[in-house]
Protein: Lipid II isoglutaminyl synthase (glutamine-hydrolyzing) subunit GatD
Organism: Limosilactobacillus allomucosae
Amino acid sequence: MTKYHLNLAHLYGDLLNTYSDVGNIIALRYYAKQMDADIAVKVVSIDEEFNPDEFDIALFGGGQDYEQLVVSKDLPNKKAGIEKFINDGKPLLAICGGYQLLGHYYVGANGEKIPGLGVLDHYTLSQDHNRFIGDITIKNEETGQEYHGFENHNGKTYLGKGERPLGKVVSGHGNNGEDGSEGAIYKNVYCSYFHGPILTRNGEIAKKILLAALHHKYPAADFSQAEALEIKPTF
Ligand code: GLN
């Protein structure tokens, strides 16, 4: 029995799971165990209610345009819940398609404009006959940490108010191939184009997400040991 228990909502986990984004949950569980915590997972999909008070962490994975279109039609039902979850300061990890759908809209590869949640202030355009594909390395400017991953997206994302990049591109393309940014951080929301999955190669991000969830759920507890957890590089 672990001392702490976290509940994770896997948003549209049956539809958005490109390149095994679900592996992020395996990585979270791996590090959570070292913090004396376990994680119960529930997929919250189409027509299901998302109650923000039921969950401590959320994962919103990537997908193809078709699945994203299906999901976008259901998003208005979950908007208030997701907005509250984020504003309460709970951690959410959004990858690629999920990242795009947190913003105002994204334009699919066929030119169709697909509305997002508009909870974060970014938007995503499409590029003609091109995708950003390959290995990518970025550097977080606040911590100096380097993150490694694999990107594969048509969308070009432009950040908005209150968002700062997850990192500056060292090699690869990133959000849009123009401004040198990759991903976004807003409150405790971490967005990225990294598949692979991101947390298996970048345990420091898993650690941040877990600590945010634990501090939020157990405000009086002492997590100094968890804070001191050493993450060994896995790339
Ligand atoms: N359809 C989106 C794009 O290509 C997202 C792809 C993904 O999640 N891998 O930009």
Notes: The chain has a mean pLDDT of 96. The pocket of glutamine is lined by residues 18, 62-65, 68, 96-97, 152-155 (CB under 6 Å). The two ends are 31 Å apart (CA to CA). The CA atoms of residues 215 and 223 lie 8 Å apart.
